[in-house]
Amino acid sequence: MKESTITRRKNQLPYAMALLLTLVIFGIYLSRAGKILTVRWIFGIAFGFVLQRSRFCFTAAVRDPILTGNTSLFRAVIIAIAVAMVGFSSIQFAAHLSGYPVPGMIKPAGVHTLLGGIIFGIGAVLSGGCASGTLMRVGEGHLLNLIALVFFIAGSAAGAYHFGWFKEHIIKSARPVFLPDLMGWGAAFFGQLALLFILYRLALWWDYKSRAQ
Asked: What is d(CA 79, CA 59) in angstroms, rounded to the nearest whole number?
């Protein structure tokens, strides 16, 4: 059994080398159109590799604690949000102190946010993954996720096509939410960090409790 496994892995080496050569050639081709395309190409490949090796998936992060009791992905998401929040908050606060408009996607929050989250959550659970998880599993050759990707694209295209109607009749009446305007910069920043810390501790507690059962 071990010998056959080793042989199968060796037989995959030419395919890996051919794929690597194809990626390099295509990267060189993109560099002729613009160096920024090559940078994006390299970043996309590296991001996909890390995503596949880490098995990172936002849907699994929320699903696994309920199904298996494992909160490792959920805690990883919390850490990622905390790191991103610190970085973006620093940029926004620096712009605020300088008198510049605060950068960021400050969008209205309302019924459409809740409804969209519910629909997306149901679809993600039925398809077995979110956008990142679906792309990662398509790269691994999962046919079910390939079907999910097709309908993911179709649904996104339909949503983009009808977005004007939703914006005019639903989103327009909602109010943009920016926590520093509601709570102040200090309360918004440290309040979010405190909430994330509490969620992290609860995730650890849930993990230990699930393993003890």
From this structure: 16
The pTM for the full model equals 0.72
- Which residue, among 114, 138, 113, 116, has the nearest Cα to 127 in the 3D structure? 138
Residues 6+ apart with CB under 8 A from 59: 124, 125, 128, 129, 130, 133
Rg (CA), the chain: 22
Q: What are the average pLDDT values for consecutive 10-residue runs of the chain, which has 213 residues? A: 51 77 83 81 83 78 84 90 92 88 82 86 79 80 83 88 87 85 90 95 90 75
Q: Do residues 51 and 179 make contact, with C-beta atoms less than 8 angstroms apart?
A: no
The Cα–Cα gap between 76 and 121 comes to 19
Cα-based distances in Å from 120 to 5, 29, 59, 142, 159: 40, 37, 10, 21, 12
Nearest in space to 179 (alpha carbons), one of 167, 171, 187, 188: 188
- Residue 149 has a pLDDT of 87
Token pair for residue 139? 């790269």
